[in-house]
Sequence to fold (79 residues):
Amino acid sequence: MIRVSLAVLVFLYLFVFIMAVFAVWVLEERRRQRHARVALQNRVHCSVCAYDFEDASSGLLPVCPRCGTTNERQKPSKI
Fold:
């Protein structure tokens, strides 16, 4: 029979609970960042009128729907 004090049991219980909450938080944050990166993948920022728009085409120079300027695609920045 293993004898363990009540203080050690409470500590172990709280430690395991806090580590589980931390692990869920880290995994959810990674999932949220991955989802945000995918959502911003087709976002283009116009260098002339500063308009942000979606362009899912595969063209190298998407045209701004507001001012008609061609814009170079930028890599999405890390969030």
User: Anything to note?
Assistant: Residues 1-41 form one domain.
